[in-house]
Amino acid sequence: MRERTIASHFARAATGGARRMGYDYAELLHRLGISAELLDEPRARIAPEQFSALLQGLWLALDDEYLGLARSPSKRGTFAMMCHALIHCSTLEKALGRGLLFYSLFPDSPGLTLAREEQWVRLSLDDSQLRDPDHFLSESLLVIWHRLGSWLIGQRIALEQASFSYPKPGHSAEYDLLFPCPLEFGAQRTSLLFHSRYLGMPLLQDERTLKHFLEHSPADLLSRPDDGDSLSSRLRRLLSRDSSRWPDLDAVAAHLHISPQTLRRHLREEGSSFQELKDQLRRDIAIYHLRRADLSLQQIAWQLGFSEPSAFHRAFKKWTGLTPGAYRAQDS
Description:
Blueprint: E1 6-7, H1 8-14, H2 16-20, H3 26-32, H4 36-40, E2 45-46, H5 48-62, H6 78-86, H7 92-104, E3 111-117, E4 120-126, H8 136-153, E5 159-163, E6 183-184, E7 190-195, H9 207-213, H10 219-223, H11 231-239, H12 249-255, H13 260-269, H14 274-292, H15 297-303, H16 309-320, H17 324-330
Parallel strand pairs: 5-6
Antiparallel strand pairs: 1-2, 3-4, 4-7, 5-7
Helix pairs in contact: 6-7, 11-14, 14-17, 15-16
Organism: Pseudomonas kielensis
Keywords: DNA-binding, Transcription, Transcription regulation
GO molecular function, one term: transcription cis-regulatory region binding
């Protein structure tokens, strides 16, 4: 129940190329239990497994790992072949270099480069030629390469900054799922910055572990959140341990050995609040049970700490734009 749900924005953005190409994906959405009402509601959420299955379904239907959002398609299996090409490299620097060289052999492939800046390394993307108005492919490529690199060396690569060549979008609050680091919009280029020490680290993966990795990648790289080291991420993990008992802010601050005022200030600096984090967790737990139909609406309301089902009904509609009953009905 700790899974983070995905904003409907990303599902709509993922289908943008298919819409432009005239592909009718209505049957795919129906099969995945994603209603048109949910897809069109800006506040709505979908489960990570739904999002992953949507991406895989679109890749299969379009035979394009770029989802119709680049100048030329990238046939299914290209990412897997690239991974096989780099898996025997000795260090992360050599692996990333070989992977980027692999993609540079394809005409019209999105341009990715890796460059050192003193003690830092910048992974940059030339997104000027993409057919990607929602920036879904741009953000996906950065996420995939960051998480692939982290998987190769067996530890999360801490990001120092994520920069984007476009203005701050309306869904920017979702970026902590993807890039838990300082963000810069309206930058000269779209890029990720991290410390150069990671480049010299040896690869801890091999052909055997790669086979398992490729069973669900790169879709699952995009559908799971980045459990970073931010205070917000730590609080989500703490609160999700026991959803039947919701500690107040003072209790959480005492657990973290800081004052309530300091906790509020740090969360505010990260663009969040204690109440917002609790509501996000409640929302995601509610969606978990609504999709599985294992509890009644009243039982879900009680588990989330609501004294009356009507209060849960109002809160869920505020969070997602849909009533609990409407959300459950789409999966039936």
